[in-house]
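#struct-help
A.M.: can someone run this one for me? Single chain, 286 residues.
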Amino acid sequence: MIDAAIATGDETKVRTVIDLARTTNPADSAELDAIIAAYDVQLAEAKAAAAAAKEQEVRTAGLFENWSGKGEFGAFRATGNSFNTGITAGLTADRQGIDWRHRLTARVDYQRANGVTTREQFLARYEPNFNLSGNVYVYALGQYERDRFQGFLGRYAASGGIGYQVFNADDLKLSVKAGPAYRVTEFTDGRSESRIAGLAGVDFDWNITKRLTLTQDTNAVAETGGSAVAIIDSRNTTLDLITGLNAAISSKLSARFSYAVEYDSNPPPGAVQTDTLSRVTLIYDF
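D.P.: on it. Structure tokens below:
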């Protein structure tokens, strides 16, 4: 029976059978100890070999290999600079290496009725980071936004800095990051501004149950009037805060409800400071 359990490759089953054998045959404890000790050695060797093979696979992977991601599609309800309901779509792709991680993010919110566009928001972001040691990493970020209803045709940001992984358990992840940034904004009235900025971000994921996950993503950018030192003379602060709840439907499909707040302390003339978006979407993992 012990050999049959070992042949299954199920560690839990093997230990359960050994424990049962100890109970029913206490006189064979020494022999059972030797069996489980030999099994532990074999198990450790198998895990080490699998880890080494996985590491080799990651190290030799091509540029377009080892990517995973999520595709998202659904509906939104917006308030603030526009009050409407429309469609939303998003894509996130990750590539995890030994020390490097690459993340690509894209999102579109769009609504058009009776020949008139009332919502047109685009976001694209690329963020690589490199693990320095333990929970400390450095990051770079390039981002493009477009939202003419908030008063800008294009907003480009570049940032780099340091991050820290506060929690990195299977069911709880929390990371924070901060660094300087540079942002260029092209307004709908033809003006253009370039400013030094500072970026702070928080990413939080909590697997409440096997099928329910709470997420929290926050990015704050504070622009100065022309110098990164003169924070007290700040011209504009942008805050993007997204809280979401994911419910798994199957191994690949999940439903998501999210609430986003987009705050601009010094918006262009005619625009308001705060937009909110409520999204209901389906997510497919690939």
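A.M.: thanks! Helices lie at 2-8, 11-24, 29-59.
D.P.: also worth noting: The CA atoms of residues 170 and 198 lie 31 Å apart.
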